Amino acid sequence: MIVAFSVSPSAAEPDGGVSEAVSRAVKVVRESGLPNSTSSMFTEIEGEWDEVMAVVKKAVEAAGEGSARVGLVLKADIRPGYDSGQLAAKVERVEAHLRED
Length: 101
Fold this sequence. Notes:
This is Thiamine-binding protein. The chain is an alpha+beta fold. It contains three helices and four strands. The protein is globular, with a radius of gyration of 15 Å.
């Protein structure tokens, strides 16, 4: 499965940013050893249901340190028969179609 998620703690930086808190969450994901990717809006992580959800939980906890509340947006792609490598393969399939045009 691939999960794309975004965390947003209520206690923001003085300029309204949340980069410090988000970086704690991203660090948890990167240290998990699971395939992952981070963009300006979401972090994606690939693996089995239980391992991915455990990492998301730890990432939310890390982002929420010192905050009374954390918002979580989560989207999951659950596709039986496609166990690994889909984080890059999905993008590669789209790029292949673009090259055909």
